[in-house]
Amino acid sequence: MNSNNPTDITELKQELEQERIKLELERTKLELEQMKHDRIKLETSSKKPTELDESAPTKPDKWYENKRIIIYLLVLFPPVGLVLLWRHTKLNIIGKILFTFYSFFVFSLLLSWIAWEVSRL
Residue 19: which domain range? Predict the structure, then answer.
């Protein structure tokens, strides 16, 4: 049996070419799967938290970031309300300035009323 037979060599070359094509196809499939995985990961990370899943529970605000509590504190105890207003709200600067003046006015009225009541005793 002569191994240098041209038909045997041609058949071997064809088999090798087929194997190479199969391996190339498998590698391409793996690359495609990796690209899909990367795209899904990128899309998920680029979405806002509200876009990810509507049914997902939202993280509750911390009490000192709650706008309603900040407003109550601005009226009842302005020094703390002002600190929270300037530190944690997303109001523009004009809104913060207006709330600051309003709080000083209300707080000064409250202190004046307390002083008047004490002086009456």
Answer: 6-49
pLDDT in tens, 22-60: 999 999 999 989 988 888 888 777 665 555 555 555 666
Is 104 in the same domain as 79? yes
Give CA–CA dist 71/63, Å, rounded. 12
DSSP conformation letters of 6-52: HHHHHHHHHHHHHHHHHHHHHHHHHHHHHHHHHHHHHHHHHS-HHHH
DSSP states along 23-34? HHHHHHHHHHHH
Confidence of residue 2 (pLDDT cuts 50, 70, 90): low
